[in-house]
Design a protein that fits this description.
With 690 residues, the protein is of the alpha/beta class. Helix content is 37%, strand content 21%. The radius of gyration is 27 Å and the shape is globular.
Length: 690
């Protein structure tokens, strides 16, 4: 069998951990406001949870495949799992150090996170009343010693593992588990405090304080509580049999996810040894599994919602502004008749997308709207606009990807709602997620049907668009909208590939994305050998596709100028003594999540630009419907050129992606001033004239 990997590269999972270390760096950065540092701790924790649910779970499954798995991974999965364990434990120590330093900083601002042993008389009464009014009826203690088998502990939840005893009777000991009800109650409670002070207590500490109220009547008089958290295998095992009802498969997968194998146990390091051993046994884990000791607090993801009202100095973010060409009142479709427009989120307001759909909904000459949806806002204005369009007599087709990881249940809900209204809903394709973000609006002008549309790098989600960096091209260019129409035709009738093969402009996964960009890189190598202008710049979330990495190496060996901005996974070794010069590669982690994909190729100074929904990963290129569009408008090309140059000049939040993954910050040269790209992009777009 042919070996898959032919050149060395950074192991994907270790590169991802290096990315999460950059998130942790933000939490450690004292120039970042305290409230944001807490948020970055929450992001780090949430990222790590998903990593274990998905990647570690996958590696655990691959262990049984032995040599076959090694062929794909370059190393045995068991060896990678060992490296993950070492790295995660090191990061956990750093996490705790940073958190403790933040607590000290909070104390200086007279903000304190107090536990059950630090309450004054007034606070004790307040906590007890809150427990009786809100908490007691939302918890159900589980006496785990009195049951033959431990019920399934829910992923994403935290549990208070309790040791109960009687000080005068050494034989009276018991263990109990209490799920902390963060799904129905806030994790943080602001306590009555002395003037100028703000005290906060966590929900689990409220329960700890009130353990006597739960168990004293059963003869116990000594109580200890320790937080534990279980992470489970979260991959959906979808039955791909074409005879199986797809929706039922998704719903079955969601139920199975709740029963997924435990892949990690995180626990309070002060937990009683006997209690810990008992839990490990009941969970079916061993000492070889991911058992991670930590502090009192777990599920730090909730710190993304830390109460901001306790801070005197609130963060003032740059407010998104409406693109000047779309300032209301205006007919967006008429603007697109004359030129393409690109929205850059979160700098531009997402409201323009909502305005476009609302306009299409009430325009008497618009006949139909087709749109793909991957992750939607909880109260989606996109969905409301589409339903309004249907009620106004338009034909509305919504492609909902039911396998959007961790959004499956939400998308099932949207499916039911849309179908109840009469909207035509398509739910994806067997074996292929529909990840491309596209829209097609068809309008009757005289006897001609004119098409408008957009291609976006990010989700149609008005909430995440406020802090995800993305680009969205709105256009009436026939070359683009004709291909958008062909992509929708294929999604509606996947038995025929004719429509996709007729695409002349869009690059569509899984059909030609890899080959297209390999050819683009090869062309740059040819141009350089012909002494013509050559070079390419790529901005992606993740880069791990072996074939594309091979071509990048060949280009670097030939001396092609290569510059990369990769937020997350980067499998490329950027330094090699045999190359004329190293690859310039950076990662930017800042206030906004860098989510956009931009691809630039010099092409003998023709300057080819593309935006895409696809990262350069096997899953995006081979197993998803992804859409990449070229940019034809010279003004938009200039915008992308300037944005890339601004980001490549970043010297505040940029880290160097070197072979050792050490996450060194880009050094300032000489007397360089701070140059923070997200602020500079905002100013550039805000001051741009049209």
């Amino acid at each position: 069998m042919k070996k898959i990997v032919t050149s060395p590269k950074i192991i994907r999972d270790l590169s991802w951990l290096a990315f999460n270390a950059r998130v942790l760096q933000e939490a450690n950065d004292k120039s970042v406001p305290l409230s944001e540092r807490l948020r970055f701790l929450g992001i780090f924790s949430n990222n790590l949870d998903e990593f274990f649910r998905v990647r570690v779970a996958t590696l655990n499954r691959m262990v049984q495949f032995g040599k076959t798995a090694k062929m794909y991974l370059e190393q045995k999965p068991a060896n990678i799992l060992k490296q993950i364990q070492v790295t995660v434990l090191e990061q956990q120590k750093e996490f705790e150090r940073i958190y403790n330093s933040i607590l000290i900083e909070l104390k200086k601002e007279k903000i304190a996170i107090v536990n059950e042993g630090q309450l004054n008389k007034v606070q004790k009464e307040f906590v007890l009343n809150y427990f009786n009014d809100k908490v007691r009826t939302n918890i159900a203690p589980l006496m785990i010693e009195s049951i033959p088998e431990l019920p399934l502990l829910r992923d994403k939840s935290i549990y208070l593992a309790c040791s109960l005893s009687n000080l005068s009777n050494s034989f009276m000991n018991s263990y109990a588990l209490i799920e902390v009800p963060t799904n129905v109650l806030p994790r943080f409670l602001i306590l009555p405090s002395n003037k100028g002070e703000k005290n906060i207590i966590l929900l689990e500490d409220i329960i700890r304080y009130c353990l006597p109220n739960l168990f004293t009547q059963f003869g116990f008089d000594s109580f200890e509580g320790y937080i534990i958290k279980v992470t489970r295998d979260a991959e959906l095992d979808i039955d791909n049999d074409v005879n199986t009802d797809f929706i039922q498969s998704i719903e079955k997968g969601l139920k199975n996810r709740k029963k997924g194998k435990a892949v990690r146990l995180v626990y309070d390091k002060s937990i009683q040894k006997n209690l810990l051993n008992y839990l490990i046994k009941l969970l079916g884990l061993t000492r070889k599994d991911n058992l991670i000791a930590g502090g009192r607090i777990h599920n730090f993801k909730d710190f993304m919602d830390f109460p901001m009202e306790v801070f005197d100095k609130r963060i003032t973010r740059n407010k998104p502004f409406v693109h000047p060409l779309f300032t209301q009142p205006v007919r967006i479709l008429e603007v697109l008749n004359s030129k393409d427009v690109m929205l850059h989120f979160p700098y531009h307001s997402f409201d323009s997308i909502i305005d476009l759909l609302r306009e299409a909904a009430i325009d008497p000459y618009v006949e139909s709207i087709k749109i793909t949806c991957y992750r939607l806002a909880k109260e989606s204005k996109i969905i409301k606009a589409l339903i309004n369009a249907l009620r106004n007599g338009k034909k509305v087709t919504v492609v909902l990807e039911l396998r959007a990881r961790f959004d499956e249940e939400a998308n099932l809900k949207w499916k039911r709602l849309l179908e109840e209204e009469g909207v035509k809903v398509l739910v994806g394709l067997p074996n292929r997620k529909i990840h491309g973000k596209i829209c097609l609006i068809s309008k009757r002008i005289s006897k001609t049907l004119k098409h408008y549309g957009f291609v976006s790098t990010g989700n149609l989600n008005e909430n995440t668009a406020q802090y995800y960096g993305d680009h969205c091209l709105l256009t009436a260019d026939k070359r683009i909208v004709s291909d958008i129409s062909r992509v929708f035709d294929f999604i509606e009738r996947p038995e025929s590939l004719v429509k996709i093969k007729q695409c002349k402009t869009l690059i569509v996964s899984p059909f030609n994305t890899r080959t297209f960009f390999i050819d683009k890189i090869i062309n740059e190598i040819k141009h350089l050998k012909q002494k013509a202008p050559a070079g390419f710049k790529i901005k992606l979330n993740s880069l791990s596709d072996n074939a594309l990495i091979e071509e990048i190496y060949l280009a670097a060996k030939a001396g092609v100028d290569i510059q990369m901005i990769i937020r997350g996974i980067c499998g490329v070794l950027t330094e090699n003594t045999k190359w004329p010069k190293p690859i310039k590669a950076i990662s930017i982690v800042d206030e906004y999540l860098e989510h956009a994909r931009i691809l630039y190729f010099n092409n003998k100074n023709k300057h080819d630009y593309y935006i895409s929904s696809a990262d350069w990963m096997i899953r995006n290129i081979d197993y998803r419907i992804e859409v990449t569009t070229p940019i034809f408008d010279n003004e938009i090309k200039d915008e992308l050129k300037n944005i890339l140059q601004i980001q490549l000049s970043e010297n505040v939040k940029a880290r160097i992606l070197d072979n050792q993954q050490e996450n060194f910050y880009v050094k300032k040269v000489g007397k360089d001033n701070d140059f923070r790209s997200q602020e500079e992009i905002y100013n550039y777009l805000k001051n741009k004239s049209y």
